[in-house]
Specification:
The protein is mainly beta and about 300 residues long. The chain has two domains: about 200 residues, Sandwich (Jelly Rolls), CATH 2.60.120.890; about 70 residues, Immunoglobulin-like, CATH 2.60.40. Helix content is about 10%, strand content about 45%. Strands 1, 6, 9, 11, 12, 14 and 15 form a seven-stranded antiparallel β-sheet that branches. The chain is elongated, with a radius of gyration of 22 Å. The N terminus is likely disordered.
């Protein structure tokens, strides 16, 4: 079972949690596993949360045109906030979206960030975004992989990427950035990932708004690792273990869908056209396999099965 988990992570690419922003808690202050100004403020104290009355630094987006995959995206927007109750006066604050946790310092009205557990070593980071700035404002994005060093009692930076984001003219765009690995310690396996989006930069303006969806890492290696879209459903097979025929357990008609089957080592071993929701696999040896299902070049399912002879 341990081997299965490790290989599945390699083949289907370890991703940031909830990277399609489909899952939200009941209060809708932040996507599950991510933080926003709202979630950070209410977690800091009731007073900090109360200061946000009438403000909307982040939003759950479910209107057609405001998401690119699934049925939900997230938006963040810059605004000003009266922090007189904290002795800070009126402050301009960019909209923030951060993987894991934003920590607010009430004494200095500043922000800190915590990373999320992560052990993958991706080559690229990729996401869809739409940006409507005010004036010459620009949004910003960054991500970093880190490894805790017990000797130094601190985390060391292994790899990262960052970019300014400019107006997209009201349309969605997709950005793909290579991760730059440190030449000295880039060979280490990370233990955490940090990732953040900011709706404003140095020329921050009230009202600049950034939409984000479908954040994912892309991997490439000699075994031909495949990138599977974030919301691709898992599909079971029966019986499992199978013998010479794999039946795909789903209510969806898979007629003429292409099944690409991989070995435990991540190597493509066979491609089959599905008929009547089943595929014959007589030529395969006993063992465990993984598969991706594609229709017209689009992934429609992923899964695994064991084969006995």
């Amino acid at each position: 079972m341990f081997t299965f988990v490790a290989i599945a992570t390699t083949i289907f690419a370890q991703q940031p949690p909830n990277n399609g922003f489909e899952s939200w808690p009941a209060n809708n202050r932040n996507p599950t596993s991510w933080s926003t100004i709202e979630s950070a403020a209410f977690e800091a104290s009731p007073l900090a949360g109360a200061l946000l009355t009438g403000k909307k630094f982040s939003s759950k987006e479910t209107t057609a045109g405001n998401y690119v995959q699934g049925s939900t995206a997230v938006s963040i927007q810059s605004d000003s906030l009266d922090l007189s109750a904290l002795g800070q006066g009126v402050r301009f604050i960019p909209g923030l979206l951060f993987l894991s946790k934003i920590v607010i310092s009430l004494s200095g009205a500043g922000f800190g960030f915590e990373g999320a557990p992560f052990t993958g070593k991706p080559d690229l980071v990729k996401f869809a975004y739409k940006y409507t700035p005010v004036g010459i404002d620009t949004a910003n994005f960054f991500t970093g992989l880190s490894k805790y060093n017990t000797t130094l009692d601190s985390s060391e930076f292994i790899a990262g990427a960052g970019e300014q984001l400019f107006s997209t003219g009201g349309n969605w765009d997709t950005l793909s950035l290579p991760l730059d690995y440190d030449l000295l310690i880039g060979g280490l396996t990370p233990d955490s990932v940090t990732m953040g989006f900011f709706s404003s930069g140095q020329n921050g303006q009230k009202g600049s708004k950034l939409w984000v969806d479908n954040v994912r890492f892309v991997y490439s290696n000699p075994n031909g690792v495949v990138e599977v879209p974030v919301e691709t459903p898992s599909i079971n097979v029966f019986p499992n273990p199978a013998n010479n025929v794999v039946n795909f357990k789903t209510d969806v008609n898979l007629e003429n869908v292409i099944a690409t089957i991989y070995s435990l080592e991540g190597k493509q071993v066979v491609t089959k056209t599905i008929s009547n929701n089943l595929a014959e696999v007589n030529e395969l040896s006993a063992g465990r396999y993984f598969f991706t299902l594609h229709r017209d070049g689009k992934a429609v399912g992923v899964g695994n099965f064991s084969l006995v002879k």
